[in-house]
Design brief:
four-stranded antiparallel β-sheet; five-stranded antiparallel β-sheet; alpha+beta; 8 helices; disordered N terminus
């Protein structure tokens, strides 16, 4: 409420002025809660002692410099500390070394910027109390001029131009700190590189039955049967088992060679045994349904259907391309083996397929 809106009966009859010349009300019977005015201004030690001001300036610069060092330490920790390394921190216990380092350095960087700004404001910037009369919301030209003048005065009193050490270290801290956020963008990756193009299959890798964990001979695969296979050396207790089997999972079916329509499929098979990726080319679901009479396999997720007698081409459903085939043969001991890796990426199509 502005002074113009105060009812006359509530306006005190007696008024006085404080040391700055501002009018203050005097309590009386009609107005027991009068404005006491501003307390006397007390100068800080930095206002009267330039050496104390210099000490405060160095303290602020030190905090900003500490923020810069903490930001550099944050980036170094992110790059250098393995994400699986753990350390013991009392009384928390065993925690991730990377998370502890990132949290500590990021906290120090933020705290140092805030503490430096607060110390600067409390010890070096002007703390003179200024009283201003309330005025209508609409700004008059005189008010705008006064605001601009006050801004210039505040900028001058902040000593930003004169305290170059504070200014430079503050700019350095504020410029380096956003790099922490930029480094966190790395968690959107890492970039896959060529990992989507290759699996564990390579020349000489034995085909191991997923159920028995034994290598397969051609005689182990009956006509019309569907067998799921993994590469030799890949075990379920391996740390990266799920990641690798998601690309290397294989299904083998034995067909009559005369029923194979695709020339390349016949060349890459062994006595009618064909090996195809088990991963659907739509969204990567594992294919598990086989129709013996038609030689069709069906993905249970979205019903994409592939013809294993004709290059595993798509005959129904949303899948975009055929299942990749693995070229197989038999080694000197009579076991089925891979003759290389898939000639194209397995699973769903991606933007740089080939």
């Amino acid at each position: 409420m502005s002074s113009q809106e105060i009812p006359e009966e509530n306006v005190p009859a007696e008024r006085a002025t404080d040391e700055h010349g501002h009018a203050v009300a005097v309590a009386d019977e009609t107005n027991p809660f009068a404005d006491p005015g501003l307390p006397p201004h007390e100068h800080r030690v930095q206002d009267i002692d330039e050496r104390a001001a210099k000490r405060s300036e160095r303290m602020v610069a030190m905090l900003f410099t500490l923020s810069m060092l903490a930001t550099v330490a944050f980036i170094a920790s992110y790059v250098a500390i393995p994400n699986d390394k753990s350390i013991y921190v009392f009384p928390i216990g065993h925690i991730s070394a990377l998370n502890f380092a990132l949290g500590l350095t990021l906290g120090v960087a933020l705290f140092s910027i805030g503490a430096g700004a607060v110390h600067w404001a409390r010890t070096l910037m002007s703390d003179m109390e200024i009283a201003d009369e309330r005025h209508p919301i609409e700004a008059e030209p005189e008010v705008k001029a006064k605001v601009l003048a006050d801004f210039k005065q505040g900028a001058k009193e902040s000593a930003l131009g004169r305290r170059k050490l504070i200014r430079n270290t503050m700019f350095g801290a504020l410029a380096l700190f956003p790099l922490s956020g930029v480094m966190l963008l790395r968690d959107l990756g890492p970039l896959p590189g060529t990992k989507l193009r290759h699996t564990l299959w390579s020349k000489g890798k034995l085909l191991v039955n997923m159920n028995t964990n034994e290598p397969l001979r051609p005689s182990d695969v009956a006509v019309g049967s569907l067998t799921f296979v993994k590469p030799e050396g890949l075990e379920e207790h391996d740390e990266d088992f799920q990641q690798e089997i998601a690309k290397a999972a294989l299904m083998i079916v034995r067909l009559q060679p005369d029923n194979i329509k695709d020339k390349q499929e016949l060349e890459w098979s062994y006595e009618g045994i064909v090996a195809y990726s088990k991963i659907c080319t739509h969204v990567g679901c594992p294919i598990s349904l086989y129709e013996q009479q038609t030689h069709h396999v069906l993905c249970p997720c979205h019903q994409s259907t592939f013809d294993l007698s004709d290059g595993a081409r798509v005959i129904f459903g949303p899948a975009g391309h055929a299942l990749p085939q693995l070229r197989i043969g038999v080694n000197d001991e009579g076991y089925l083996e891979a003759l290389g890796d898939f000639d194209e990426p397995v699973g769903p199509a991606f933007w740089e397929r080939g």
